[in-house]
Design brief:
single chain, Arc Repressor Mutant, subunit A, nine-stranded mixed sheet, three-stranded antiparallel sheet, binds zinc ion
């Protein structure tokens, strides 16, 4: 039955964390009193003139380079005309037919190999103000009693990234977004947090018979506020479209909101065509012409990007582990630890769980010492292992003293302790023999306590079980 192939493209809006807005000197930031971060420019008063934010222009170039895009020698701001209360000017300044970045790609690593996702464009624009719908149950406009507008957000620099319809599953879309988010965060241009709205994603979804090259009618899904919800929204829409086609119907072009609670898709207004906006070049702004030296410098300054690092880690680990290491800034320590002789999976478990919990800074850890500990983790007592990880970030740390404290697994040494514990807890022995087998852990715990955590728990387990057998 699975003869349908999902075809997914994404439109992503990223709010840049510049100090000031895109075309004026108003501060950007959350939590300020409503409508306190505004001025004649971002409120669109007649005669006010926009001045572009140099940092925002550098950052879109930086992002474009990280996404493998061609950087336009000449990009042009346009007015996108529409009327809505969140846009007091009556138009939004955006880049239209001449965007800053085009023709890029990002490589997503899947179990079956690597998949290149095309980036059609990345361009700069300004954010609209925020409508706050009051009354009604969902905070949406439907059912609201009235709407308030907070213009603090109006004019905040945004980058819109548009992918080619190259994604073919919800899982792949999720991985792409995780990777894109990590890239943006590492570039330092945005916090890219979906819950705060600094990263917003719309998905265009269609399905077609597997093997076909023809694109069928797509629909757009909005209002998804986490990567998991995006994946669920896409899965729901794919299933809906397959059902429509298989029952002899035809998918129509619609925009849907995805309701996280019910998992339901609700249709919005019919999609407007781009032509409705009557774009024209913004007469108050000069074209963006970043000098070649600036582009070269930004290209030179790019760090090694998460896509390359995830691909490298995935030669030894699965995607989930690789993602945790890379997004946690732990992959370089992991690589060095493996290079020092540690097992890949074991090192990843120790670093991503215990080391992080111990509070050690990854940069302060000597990978050679960590590799020794990872290697010995089954042989030394758990408490000793935890103690060593707690100190591994200290200057001059050596694993040797801890390695010397191997677990006590010698039965002749442990048997007397087991016997003493059993003798001291006759009531529990009776209960255990009466069927309360959960008490086994109690006896093992007592023995561990007596040995100050040095006993090998597996050996203790066997000894206790044998002794308690009726
Ligand atoms: Zn302003």
């Amino acid at each position: 039955m699975s003869t349908w192939e999902p075809v997914i493209g994404l439109e992503i809006h990223v709010q840049l964390k510049t100090r000031t807005k895109m075309f004026c000197r108003c501060r950007v930031g959350f939590g300020a009193e409503e409508n306190s971060q505004t001025c004649p420019v971002c409120l669109g008063f007649p005669g006010a003139l926009p001045v572009p934010n140099r940092t925002a222009i550098e950052w879109v170039v930086k992002l474009g380079l990280a996404l493998g895009c061609e950087i336009a020698e000449r990009a042009v701001f346009a007015r996108k005309n529409y009327f809505y209360p969140d846009l007091s000017k009556g138009y939004q300044i955006s880049q239209y037919d001449l965007p800053s970045c085009v023709n890029g790609n990002m490589i997503v690593s899947l179990a079956e190999g690597q998949h290149e996702i095309g980036i059609v464009r990345a361009h700069l624009e300004e954010d609209a103000a925020k409508n706050v719908h009051v009354g009604g149950r969902t905070g949406r406009i439907g059912g609201a009693e009235y709407t308030l507008v907070d213009y603090n957000r109006g004019g905040t620099p945004l980058v819109e990234i548009v992918t080619a319809p190259d994604l073919h599953s919800a899982e792949e879309a999720k991985r792409f977004l995780q990777l894109l988010r990590q890239t943006i965060v590492e570039l330092g241009i945005s916090d890219a947090e979906m819950e705060k709205g600094t990263l917003r994603v719309d998905a265009n979804v269609s399905v077609r018979p597997a093997g076909s090259e023809v694109l069928r009618t797509r629909s757009e899904i909005k209002n998804m506020n986490s990567f998991t919800h995006i994946a669920r929204g896409i899965d729901a829409e794919v299933a809906r479209q397959i059902e429509v086609w298989e029952s002899g119907g035809e998918v129509e072009q619609h925009t849907y909101d995805f309701d996280v609670g019910s998992g339901a898709l609700t249709a919005r207004r019919t999609k407007e065509e781009a032509d409705d906006y009557r774009y024209f070049p913004e007469p108050d702004l000069a074209p963006v012409e970043p000098p070649a030296e600036l582009v070269d410098r930004l290209r030179f300054e790019l760090p090694e990007l998460p896509a390359a690092r995830i691909a490298r880690v995935m030669k030894k680990l699965d995607h989930d582990r690789a993602l945790v290491l890379v997004t946690g800034g732990l992959d370089r320590l992991w690589e060095a630890t493996v290079a020092a002789g540690a097992d890949g999976v074991a090192a990843s478990n120790v670093i991503a769980n215990q080391l992080v919990a111990s509070g050690a800074r990854p940069g302060a850890v000597d990978p050679t010492e960590l590799a020794k500990l990872v290697d010995a983790r089954e042989r030394i007592p758990r408490a000793t292992f935890a103690e060593a990880l707690g100190k591994i970030g200290d200057h001059g740390f050596s694993a040797e003293p801890y390695l010397a404290m191997e677990s006590v697994s010698d039965t002749s040494e442990l048997e007397p302790i087991v016997d003493a514990v059993i003798a001291a807890n006759s009531a529990q022995v009776e209960q255990y023999r009466g069927g309360k087998e959960g008490l086994l852990g109690f006896f093992v715990g007592q023995v561990m306590k007596e040995t100050k955590g040095r006993a090998d728990p597996r050996v203790v387990n066997e000894l206790v079980r044998a002794r308690l057998a009726p």
